[in-house]
Write a structure and sequence with these properties.
It catalyses: H(+)(in) = H(+)(out). It is a single chain. With about 80 residues, the chain is mainly α. The protein is about 95% helix and about 0% strand. The longest helix has about 40 residues. It is built from two helices and no strands. It has a domain of about 35 residues.
Amino acid sequence: MLVNQFLLIRPLALGVCLTANLTAGYLLIQLISTATTTLLSILPTASILTTSILLLLTILEIAVAIIQAYVFVLLLSLYLQENI
């Protein structure tokens, strides 16, 4: 019985971990975009700089999402193979 519970917990823990990683990236993008709109009226030059940082961070976050999806599918398939 304990083994069956352990095999159920591993995919759930993986999902929580991946969700936390993706949420952290989303929150960082949200904070920087808020700073960009705030700086637009005060310091337009700094706003342009933060916009370029935001663009680079968005590209990085897309790459992270692709890698996270690959890891999720790979580990989930390994966990399912252990059950069969």
